[in-house]
Amino acid sequence: MSIEILPINGFIGAEVRGVHLGRLDDAVFRTLREALVRYEVLVFRDQDIALEDQMAFGARFGKLSVHPFSPNLEDKPEVILLDYSEDHPAARTDIWHADETFRPNPPMATMLRARVLPPAGGDTCFASMTAAYRGLSERMKRHIHGLEALHDFKPFRSLFNNTPEHRKRLREIEDEFPNPWHPVVAVHPESGRRVIYVNPQFTIRIRDMKDDESQALLQFLYAQASVPEYQLRVKWQVNTVVIWDNRSVHHYAPHDYYPHRRMMERVTITGEVPVGVQGEYLPETVAGLGAVNPRTPPRKAPLRQFERRK
Asked: Is 251 annotated in the active site?
């Protein structure tokens, strides 16, 4: 079967058919990498592959990273096991976010494979933050041009209690992951598209703004992920694999399946330091997927009642 890449939504997402992720030649992989940059989320169905195959596929994009807080496999620390059930309820995923932006170099991509699914629910939602940027007014784009925001591993601070041992370990973690300043508008290193690069899970504040100003602007930018036109919702099946471009996509995993079990295996690919738009503001010239706010063409339609002359 030849490879097929079928767009799912107007702005984000494609389903890939005719590919076995455990058997990829270089030409097919190049096609998939180009598709990931273009569509930002790729969905592969019926991937009955070994965990080692999933890791090997991820490693073709770059070095796999080890998450400092999430539960991983002892013999494969690059693999995060997201296993939620009645005895272990889900946490920290029901908020729009890009993965690990508390790092100086956040991941370039994240990949999940579904192993155990609830009878209903357990979908994952994605939002294109390149489309979200294009949807802003030119005045707002000028306003946020050149701004920087502080990021922190704030949702994981609750893992540390107030014992001397935990306080000491927290200080060590803070030294290992000092809060980075990332551009509010980043430039995708491969496509050149601009990205809204703040998220409510890890972003703290905007540099050189009063707290109320910073929070008001951040809340407005966070809300862009909630625009339905920019979204994709993936309904999982066992052995579905999804990889998304963490440099340009936010995701949200609803907790709508309790008390049933949902188990995923995740690998994450190391990324680069985000770079913002350089120099004075100029309108974006790189085209993106879909047309944001297209002009309504003239209509030749029957007159409406209020337009009729008597």
From this structure: yes
> Catalytic: 266?
yes
SS3 206: strand
Reported as a single tens digit per residue, the pLDDT across 267-299 is: 999 999 999 999 999 999 998 998 886 565 666
Candidates 99, 134, 182, 188; catalytic one: 99
| Identified catalytic residue from 67, 115, 151, 266 | 266
Exposed/middle/buried for residue 102 (C-beta within 10 Å: 0-12, 13-18, 19+): buried
**Which token pair is 229?**
């036109």
Bridge partners of 110, per DSSP, are 244, 268
Would you call 166 a catalytic residue per the annotation?
Answer: no
Contact 202, 153 (CB under 8 A): yes
Single out the catalytic residue among 97, 103, 115, 194.
97
Contact 129, 197 (CB under 8 A): yes
Catalytic residue among 67, 193, 250, 251: 251
* Two tokens, residue 262: 């949902």
d(CA 253, CA 248): 17
- For 11-50, how does the pLDDT look when each residue is reduced to its tens digit (9 = 90+)? 999 999 999 999 999 999 999 999 999 999 999 999 999 9
CA 116 → CA 71, 82, 119, 246, distances in Å? Answer: 17, 10, 10, 24
How far is the C-alpha of 204 from the C-alpha of 176, rounded, in Å? 18
Would you call 60 a catalytic residue per the annotation? no
Q: Could you tell me the pTM of the whole model?
A: 0.93
pLDDT averages per 10-residue partition of the chain, 310 residues: 92 97 95 98 97 97 93 92 92 91 97 98 98 97 98 88 88 91 98 98 97 98 97 98 98 96 97 97 93 68 77
